[in-house]
Amino acid sequence: MDRQALYFTGPRQVAVNRETLPAPAFGQVLVQTILSAISPGTELLIYRGLAPQGLARDETIAALAGDFTFPLTYGYAAVGQVVELGPGVAPAWQDRLVFAFQPHASHFLATPDELLRVPAGLNPEEAVFFPNMETAVTLLLDGQPRMGEQVAIFGQGIVGLLLTALISRWPLSSLVTLDLYPRRRLLSEDLGANLSLDPSAPDALERLAAGLKADGPCSGADLSYEISGNPAALDQAIAVTGFSGRVVIGSWYGLKRCELNLGGRFHRSRMRLISSQVSSINPELSGRWDKTRLYHLTWQMLAQVQPARFITQRVPIAQAAQAYELLDDHPEDVIQVILTY
Fold first, then answer.
1. pLDDT (tens digit, 9 = 90+) per residue, 7-52?
2. Which of 95, 106, 179, 282 sits between 20 and 30 A of 274, alpha carbons compared?
3. Exposed/middle/buried for 322, CB within 10 Å: 0-12, 13-18, 19+?
4. Which ranges constitute the DSSP H helices of the chain?
5. What's the rounded Cα separation, in Å, for the pair 184 and 229?
6. Is-cis flag, bond preceding 231, omega within 30?
7. How many helices (H) and strands (E) in the chain?
8. Contact 280, 59 (CB under 8 A)
């Protein structure tokens, strides 16, 4: 079986190579990819050469073994159909629609335990958002929003928008989001944000503080999320978070340095900075939460939010280089790019 596979070959260099896959071995299946989603945060760091090359790509996903040294394959959001079974695989897997944490490629080999069955009623364009929705759910579990809280979200990329769609269901006092791009801010308000601001505006923090207070007795954010990918936003998030508040950091900055002002109000604020990452579950929750429960909830939220409406571009795999150029040069025009096969 010949396949097309996407490779990052150097900073701002992408190639789609033809290569041969063997027949499925014992316990394996062959999946033909229908579509895969580009992760604009992590994949742009790789594309720009800003991912630490000695760092493991992912220690929990077999398909992403190795580090970030060029050339490398990447991607973790593929939806496809099982088209061939290897020896020892139950016949029921034939023709199943599945999701996999797999790099961008037209076909791939996997074992059934590396695949997630797409629930009935979900189409591929909904299912491909599984990793981003899992991340948004994890951010909620780590932030633990409470009734009546004042919440700020820095970043309204796809994960930020999904988080806004979920957290806006809480009976919050106020929800204010921030993003550089008007298209995302408008969508954020449609999803339930009380206000969405441009963080680069001179009065952004002043307007954010006013929007958070919402005529309440307590100033500042009870809970802030930094998921913009911009290290400067973390300093802003700390600045607007109130006494004993929580700042959840979901961004991965790669090689970008983060400079924080911790010598002023922060020193006496008793706020907590919380690292959130989807590859693990908060140890405090492990008594009742595991990956199986998290996956089940993620599928439920995909069915409710229906994020296929966030797809802004569908690009054939052969034109993948153009997709990354668009993400790099014109992020204001993009929410979610899908590669098609």
1. 999 999 999 999 999 999 999 999 999 999 999 888 999 999 999 8
2. 179
3. middle
4. 40-47, 124-127, 130-143, 158-167, 182-190, 204-213, 231-240, 291-305, 320-329
5. 15
6. no
7. 9, 15
8. no
Q: Which residues contact residue 279 at a Cβ distance below 8 angstroms, ignoring those fewer than 6 apart?
A: 58, 59, 60
Q: Look at the alpha carbons of 47, 319, 184, 301 in this order and tell me if their dihedral is positive or negative.
A: negative
The CA distance from 167 to 171, in Å, is 9
Q: Single out the residue of 289, 340, 274 nearest to residue 105, CA to CA.
A: 340
pTM: 0.94
Q: Which two tokens stand for residue 223?
A: 């809970």
DSSP state of 74: -
* Look-up of token digits 């097309």: 4
Phi, psi of 104, rounded to the nearest 5 degrees? -65, 115
Q: Are 212 and 176 in contact (CB under 8 A)?
A: yes
Residue with tokens 């996903």: 61
Give 134-189 pLDDT, tens digit per residue.
999 999 999 999 999 999 999 999 999 999 999 999 999 999 999 999 999 999 99
Question: Is the sign of the CA dihedral 47, 53, 59, 64 positive or negative?
Answer: positive
Alpha-carbon separation of residue 241 from 83, 86, 145, 196, 246 (angstroms): 51, 54, 14, 17, 7
> Which tokens is 244 given?
């004993």
In 3-state terms the chain splits into helix, strand, coil percentages (rounded to 5) of 35, 25, 40
Beta strand 150-154 pairing with 97-100: unpaired
Closest C-alpha to 337, from 153, 329, 222, 257: 329
User: Which amino acid would we find at residue 26?
Assistant: F
Instruction: Report the distance separating Cα 66 and Cα 89, nearest Å.
Output: 27
